[in-house]
Write a structure and sequence with these properties.
This protein is of the alpha/beta class. The chain has 15 helices and 12 strands. The protein starts with 9 loop residues before the first helix and ends with a helix. InterPro entries: Aminotrans_V_dom (IPR000192), PyrdxlP-dep_Trfase (IPR015424), PyrdxlP-dep_Trfase_major (IPR015421), PyrdxlP-dep_Trfase_small (IPR015422).
């Protein structure tokens, strides 16, 4: 992994602990992006002639990487646009279960559209809280982040399988933006009906790309009858009227989606299982060190498994002090968020811990 760090120029000047905010651009992806735009530069409109054929290869790459058919893989500039499109097509009488203090792109998007809402608390008993909320409120939809963006608390994927088995009519929609690219994952065998992700964080795809994955027949089930009726009564090209067109309306940027495809191939060459092992090792090390400093909340400490996102006790002054030392983090919630990817090392964590010792 240390050899890979040379591809990420930011790492030569900074201790970068902020992938949960933005993944890094790397040398070979920059080369790809420059070649892409050179082709556009010399090709003009002829460059666009292969657009749809190319985007089909992107759908196949995403589907292969995450275990979903290309037909059920939708391209979208980001998770939020895809999620809002889903919500716009659902009946507002449906009740939606949310996690308290989840990402605003989920919770505010649901609340401002007039759905009836209920909540489950995010703490050390997260899965039990969800199960009890489903039994009590009987929601039609459960929408949530797989990893909480402030605390890093991650929902148990096996729990989601069991939840779906016990509640087959519950539509489970997951935002995986803080998850995809950190663990080996097969959507087809998961308990999730719809999974969405923006590609600019752990997938290192840069900005302006994302995707939505749908289990078989789910895309059809959530498409409004008015849309399907209108589509059946026109002779427009199917690219304007198929089930994906609600999400893929307008021209999709081959620069952005090509960047995502390139990064999926880059991650595959490293090996996602290798990346997962590296992240897990860093996460365990960081959790131990930060626990020893009494900088983590009890809800995080008591969880058996955790992501590589941690929110440590700290304020603006501490954040500024770390930034002055070129330790890049984020202010989130009531503390300072750090996040570790495969290009991080134990030395990065040690440097953070050493600075925190000095600060105290």
């Amino acid at each position: 992994m240390k050899n890979l760090r040379k591809e990420f120029p930011v790492l030569s000047q900074n201790t970068y602990l902020n992938t949960a905010s933005s993944g890094l651009l790397y040398d070979s992806l920059l080369d790809y992006r420059q070649e892409h735009d050179l082709d556009f530069l010399i090709g003009g409109s002829t460059f666009r002639d292969q657009q749809e054929k190319f985007l089909n290869t992107v759908r196949k790459s995403i589907g292969f990487f995450f275990g979903c058919t290309p037909e059920n893989t939708v391209l979208t500039p980001n998770f939020s646009l895809g999620f809002n499109t889903i919500l716009n097509g659902l009946e507002k009488k449906k009740k939606v279960l949310l996690l308290d203090e989840d990402y605003p792109s989920i919770n505010f998007a649901v609340a401002n559209k007039g759905f009836e809402v209920c909540h489950a608390k995010v703490n050390s008993s997260l899965e039990q809280n969800i199960e009890e909320a489903v039994a009590k409120h009987k929601p039609s939809i459960f929408a949530f982040s797989l990893v909480q963006y402030t605390t890093g608390i991650a929902i148990d994927l096996n729990f989601l399988k069991q939840l779906k088995l016990k509640n087959p009519e519950l539509l489970i929609i997951a935002d995986a933006t803080q998850f995809c690219g950190t663990k080996v994952f097969d959507f087809n065998t998961s308990g999730i009906d719809i999974l969405g992700c923006s590609g600019y964080k752990w997938l290192l795809g840069g900005y302006g790309n994302g995707f939505m994955l749908f289990k078989e027949n789910v895309l059809d089930q959530i498409t409004p009858d008015t849309y399907k009726k209108a589509a059946s009564n026109t002779d427009y090209d199917s690219s304007y009227t198929n089930l994906r067109a609600r999400y893929e309306c307008g021209h999709l940027d081959t620069f952005n989606f090509g960047s995502l495809q390139y990064s999926l191939q880059y991650i595959s060459k490293i090996g996602l299982s290798v990346i997962e092992e590296q992240i897990n090792e860093l996460s365990i090390y960081a959790k131990t060190e930060l626990t020893n400093l009494n900088l983590l909340e009890n809800d995080v400490i008591s969880r058996k498994n955790h992501s590589s996102i941690f929110n440590i006790k700290g304020d603006q002054k501490m954040y500024n002090s770390l930034k002055e030392k070129n330790i890049i983090t984020s202010l989130r919630g009531n503390g300072i968020r750090i996040s570790l990817h495969f290009y991080n090392t134990k030395e990065d964590v040690t440097r953070l811990v050493d600075e925190l010792h000095r600060y105290r």
